[in-house]
Amino acid sequence: MRDVSFQLAIGLKLKPWNECPLDCDEGTPPDYMDTDAEIADYIRSRAIRLELEQALRARRRAQREARRAAQRRRRRRPSCPSLACAVARGPCQLQPWNFLAARPA
């Protein structure tokens, strides 16, 4: 977890004295933060954390929707691999029992 926090601080260009957004899980700053600068830093880090959580939720929602769409596409696939049969919605020309019926007389 420390590595993730370190990489996040580098990515966000946080100073060493800034509060890590991963540590800001309360809505209000801790009691030991007395100065306005510490409280403002906590509030800024909290806002960053909320934005990250919202982006993560949106990403997971998009992945979930993509999986569901792929499952729906798989279910709608015709049993015949021939695209012509699926488009024409007629009898399958590849099934052996339909070859005799499709042959001209």
Would you count the extended β strands for me? 0
First CA to last CA: what distance? 75 Å
Number of helices, counting only DSSP H or I runs of 4 residues or more: 4
Low-confidence blocks of residues:
none
- Domain count: 1
Element-by-element helix/strand order: HHHH
- What is the makeup of the main sheet? none
- Residue share in helix: 55-70%
Q: Beta-strand percentage? A: under 5%
- Overall geometry comes to elongated
What's the Cα radius of gyration? Answer: 29 Å
Instruction: Tell me the structural class.
Output: mainly alpha
Topology:
Layout: H1 2-11, H2 36-76, H3 83-88, H4 96-102
Could you explain the architecture of this structure?
This protein is mainly alpha-helical. It has one domain (2-78). Helices cover 61% and strands 0% of the residues. The protein is elongated and about 60 Å long.
Q: Could you provide a short overview of the structure?
A:
The protein has helices at 2-11, 36-76, 83-88, 96-102. It is mostly helical and 105 residues long. It has one domain.
Name the features.
105 residues, mainly alpha, 4 helices, elongated
